[in-house]
């Protein structure tokens, strides 16, 4: 369900997925509070519906360093290796990655798929020999969407596909033609040139050694990935934890006499410790059943267990229960 929150295409789908997540895991408020306080204020940096307007070429990994740290663990037997063994493992990993990259480039250079050599792929033009296989796959996805507007024998009058709108961000994000441009090429009978896609998808650099060409395309080290650099924003009140559970029916509510250990609806800006202390104060009020049991001297008492050693409680600065393992006998 968290993937649905991350990869939602629109902001409305993102909000609905978050509310469904809060409703499904309503009994795990510590984890929800951690996500609400840590990740939701900066959702413009990781949510799919917000980062579609940046040139990222479909890359979902936020940090190459974290990916390298994860890969280096497969080259080490355990965590007790010395520093020299770590340096050797890094060299081995870099050599394997370089060999893998060379093999991938060689596979892209050889046109192995018959799909792009047929007559139906004539719209690609010179992209079939100058573009990588991954880029051709992305353009094929846009081509299939554009086919819905092409008249056929079974559908002679399909729905017309207009020009690009504000919501069409394929060219901005991936650097390839969107299905609107593919549709225009299919109607006009023209083909694409290799300069209509970003140079990232080119198989090799141009062999033309001309000073005028260097002026048009200088060797400047530019960042090929766009990443939003914004500050934390307040989370809207409609996404507060517990907002989806306020509309529950009477059959889903807890019966009378049972303490409600869940936290109330928390808007952005409410301290976690204040809400937890308020919920503890309500749970500590004696009920009719507890008073009757204490009056008759019953030795069995019900003790409400507090939150355990979780990440969300630790991040909020709340005092935790002492560990049982650390107590000396």
Describe the structure.
The structure is a single chain. The chain is mostly helical and 329 residues long. The chain has helices at 2-6, 11-24, 29-38, 48-51, 64-72, 83-109, 127-130, 133-146, 170-174, 179-188, 211-216, 272-283, 288-295, 311-316. Among the domains are: 1-56 and 233-251, no CATH class; 58-110; 115-197, no CATH class. The protein contains 14 helices and no strands. α8 (133-146) crosses α10 (179-188). It is flat, with a radius of gyration of 29 Å.
Secondary-structure blueprint:
Blueprint: H1 2-6, H2 11-24, H3 29-38, H4 48-51, H5 64-72, H6 83-109, H7 127-130, H8 133-146, H9 170-174, H10 179-188, H11 211-216, H12 272-283, H13 288-295, H14 311-316
Q: Give the SSE string.
A: HHHHHHHHHHHHHH
Structural class: mainly alpha
Give the rounded overall mean pLDDT. 74
**Which residue ranges are poorly predicted, with pLDDT under 50 across at least 5 consecutive positions?**
247-264, 286-298, 302-316
Q: In total, how many beta strands? A: 0
User: Tell me about the biggest sheet?
Assistant: none
Number of helices: 14
Please give the radius of gyration in angstroms. Answer: 29 Å
């Amino acid at each position: 369900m968290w993937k649905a929150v991350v990869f939602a295409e629109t902001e409305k789908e993102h909000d609905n997925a978050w509310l469904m997540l809060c409703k499904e895991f309503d009994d795990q408020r510590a984890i929800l509070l951690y996500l609400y306080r840590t990740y939701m204020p900066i959702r413009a940096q990781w949510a799919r519906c917000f980062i579609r307007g940046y040139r990222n070429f479909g890359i979902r990994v936020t940090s190459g360093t974290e990916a390298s740290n994860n890969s280096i663990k497969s080259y080490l037997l355990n965590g007790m290796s010395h520093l020299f063994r770590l340096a050797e493992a890094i060299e081995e990993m870099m050599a394997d990655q370089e060999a893998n990259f060379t093999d991938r480039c060689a596979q892209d250079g050889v046109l192995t798929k018959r799909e792009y050599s047929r007559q139906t792929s004539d719209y690609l033009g010179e992209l079939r020999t100058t573009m990588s296989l991954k880029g051709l796959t992305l353009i094929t996805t846009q081509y299939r969407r554009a086919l819905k507007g092409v008249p056929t024998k079974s559908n002679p009058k399909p729905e017309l596909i207009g020009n690009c709108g504000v919501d069409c961000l394929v060219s901005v994000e991936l650097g390839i033609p969107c299905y609107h441009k593919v549709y225009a090429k299919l109607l006009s009978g023209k083909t694409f040139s290799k300069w209509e896609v970003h140079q990232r998808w080119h198989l090799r650099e141009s062999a033309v050694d001309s000073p005028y060409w260097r002026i048009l395309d200088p060797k400047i080290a530019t960042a090929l990935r766009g990443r939003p650099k914004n500050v934390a924003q307040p989370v809207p009140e409609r996404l507060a934890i517990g907002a989806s559970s306020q509309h529950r029916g009477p059959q889903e509510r807890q019966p009378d006499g049972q303490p409600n250990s869940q936290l109330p609806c928390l808007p952005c800006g409410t301290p976690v410790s204040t809400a937890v202390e308020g919920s503890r104060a309500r749970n500590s009020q004696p009920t009719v059943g507890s008073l009757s049991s204490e009056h008759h001297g019953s030795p069995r008492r019900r003790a409400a267990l507090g939150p355990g050693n979780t990440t969300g409680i630790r991040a909020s600065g709340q005092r935790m229960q002492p560990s049982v393992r650390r107590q000396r006998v």
